[in-house]
Amino acid sequence: MIILGINAYHADSSAAIFKDGVMIAATEEERFRRIKHWAGFPSQAIAFCLKEAGVSLAEVDHIAIGRDPQAKMLNKLLFLAKHPFDSWHFVRDRFFNQKKVASIEEELAVVSGMDAQLIKPKIHQVEHHRSHLASAFFASPFEEAAILSIDGSGDFTTTMIGVGKGHHFEVLDSIDFPHSLGIFYTAFTQLLGFPHYGDEYKVMGLAPYGKPVYVEQLRDIVQWTNDGLFRLDLSFFRSPSKGFVGYGEDHLPVVPALFGSKLEERFGKVRAKEEPLTQHHKDLAASVQRFTEETIFHVLKGLHRRTGLDTVCIAGGVAQNSVANGKITRNTPFKSVYIPSAGHDAGISMGAAQYVYHQLLQQQRVAPVWSAYTGARYSNEEIEAVLQANHIAYKKLGEDELYDYVSEKLVNAGVIGWFSGRAEFGPRALGGRSILADPRRSDAKDLLNAKIKRRESFRPFAPSILKEYVDEYFEVNDVVPFMEKVFPIRNEKHALIPAVTHADGTGRLQSVDAAVSPRYYRLIDTFRQKTGVPILLNTSFNENEPIVNAPQEALNCFLRTQMDMLVMENIVVER
Fold first, then answer.
1. What domains does the chain contain, in order, with CATH numbers?
2. What is the pTM of this model?
C-alpha cells in the first residue's frame, strides 16, 4: 500500500511517501525552491518522493493532506460572530487558502497528467494537530504513550493532547485559536527585534546570557488553568480577528507584529534592527524561555494526570524548543520523550500519511523511526560531473583514506563542508548536510561565524557525539538522534569542548548511532582515535539559505565562503 502525505499552502510545505507503513522518502519543498519556509504547493517534493518510491501518482493508493478546513467549524463561526467586522480580512484570507487546499486534486492533476476526478477519491484531509500527533506517536518506539501537539495555530487549534495505544490514538482535549503558546513566544521574539518567520530559536540562544527576572510579570499574560491547559490575556496581543500568519503570492509566510501596545508598555518598546542587545533584552529572553518551559511542564503534568503513562510523544512548532525538551524528564513525571526529526510543520506530511495508514485504515505499527535521512542523495559520478562542469579540481579517495584525510584536516583547524548520503528531513543537519569543525578550539565559533555562517555571536553550535560516550560528557544520558534536546555538559568537560558548550554550560545533543549514520559515525570515531574526543562541532550546511540539497548548492556555498574543504561522498575539494 502506497500513501503520499502532503503539507501544502502552509509554512514548510513538504511531502512524504510510505510503502506498507514504512517511510521511503520525505523532504521539504524549500530544499528544491531554495526559499526558506516556502509555503506553496510542494510539487517538486512530491515528484522526488514518487521517484524515490519508484511509483507514479496513479499507483498511489491514498493521498493524505495535513489540513482539514472543516475542522472545528462551529468554533470558527462563533469566533466570527464575536468579531463580525474585524474578522473579514482574516476570514477572507483563510477562505482562499481553504479553497487551495480543497482543490489539491487539480494541482496533482497538473503535475501528474492524471484526471483530477480519478485523484479526488484518494484524498483524505487530516486535521493539522492530528497530523502532528500521528507524526510523533506512530513513529515512536512506544506501544502506549501520552501525546502532545503544541504550536502557533493550525485548523483553529493551538494545542492538542491525547493518548495513543497500538495503531490508534484518542484526542483528550485541545485549545482553540488564539490562545497559543507559540503566539506568545513569537510576540516576544518580535519585541526583542527578531521579526522574521522562524526566528524563535534566536530567543532560545540568547536566553542563557540573561536572568529570568521578569517571569512573575509574564504569569498574567499566559494564565494556567486547573485542567492542565492555559489561556492568553489577549489584551497584550494583536487583535486575533485580524489574523496572524498570512501568505503572499510568493508563498512566503508573513507574520505581522503580534504584540500590542500593552506588551510594549510593560516590557519596553520593540528593539530596532540597529539597536544593540542590552542586558534588559537578554533578561527578557531568559524570562520568556523560562516561563515557556514552565508552561510546557504545566501542560505535561496535566497530561500525565489524565493518562498515568510514563512515556510521551511531542510535535508542533513549540516542540522545536530543544532547551525545554531536554528538561522534561527532570521536571515532569514522564521518563521517556520521543520527538520526530521534523516536529515542525514539515512533519505534517509525514503525520498525515501515518494517520491514514494507522488510524483510518487500522494497519499495524511498523518499526520506529530513528533516521532522518529520507531526502536527496547523489552518487560519486553525479558529483564528479557537477565539479567537471564547473571546472573545479578535486580528488577521489577510498573509504579508509577518506576518513583519515578529513579528520586530519579537522584536527588542524579545518572547517569542513560534509555532504554524505541522503539529506535530512527536518530543520537540523545531522551529518548528511553538515559543516564540521573541531569542538576543542575555543575560537571555532568565531571562525565559523567569520568564514561562513555570518550570524549572531550568541547563537550556539551543537555537538555530535558517538552514542556510547554520551554519559561521559553529558549529565543526562539519552538517545537523541535528531538533535532535539539540550542537556547540561559535565563541568569537567567544558574546557575540553568549548566550541560546543553554550554560555550556560549546555549543549544541543545529537547522539550518533553507527547503525543509523555509519559514515558520519566513522568520521567522528576516526577523529576520536586521533584526539581522544568522540565529538565534532556540527552546524547546518548553508549560509542564510535552506540547507544545501544538491552538489551544485554545496559547491556554491563552498565557493562563496571561506570553508577549507568540501567533501561530497568520496570526492574532496580543497582551496
1. 2-134+348-360 (3.30.420.40), 152-339 (3.30.420.40), 380-574 (3.90.870.20)
2. 0.96
